[in-house]
Amino acid sequence: YPVESPGELSAGREFCRLAQAPGRSGGGGDGLTIDTKGNLYITSGLGLQVFDPTGKMLGIIKLPEQPANVIFGGADFKTLYVTARTSLYTVQLEATGHRFAVGK
């Protein structure tokens, strides 16, 4: 939904469509984060699905378990921390994570 002015949105459009496992449909994303280039990392049944700012899928980062949530961290903000049902995974990337504003 493009923001036209404060409190005013124009018509929305589908940004991206998550890939589904063969023979399955309807699974959606759960957690997500974004890098400094605007790429989205969305947790799904297939792993972390990565989309560029236009909504084009760049690939899937597979993990041993289905991920639930994801965030960038580490000293250089190039480590993805991914939670799953029983584990916490780290994935080192060349991409740098976006730093979200901290509320007061």
Entry keywords:
9 strands; globular; 104 residues; three-stranded antiparallel beta sheet; single chain; mainly beta; four-stranded antiparallel beta sheet
Would you give an account of this structure?
Helices cover about 0% and strands about 40% of the residues. The chain has a 4-stranded antiparallel beta sheet, with no helix packed on it. Strands 7-8-9 form a 3-stranded antiparallel beta sheet, with no helix packed on it. It starts with a strand and ends in a 12-residue tail after the last strand. It is mainly β and about 100 residues long.
Quick one: how many beta strands?
A: 9
Counting H and I runs of at least 4 residues, what is the number of helices?
Answer: 0
Give the structural class. mainly beta
Order of helices and strands: EEEEEEEEE
Percent in strands? 35-45%
Residue-averaged pLDDT: 92
In short:
With 104 residues, this protein is mainly beta. 0% of the residues lie in helices and 39% in strands.
Describe the secondary structure blueprint for this structure:
Layout: E1 3-5, E2 8-9, E3 32-34, E4 40-44, E5 47-51, E6 57-61, E7 67-73, E8 79-84, E9 88-92
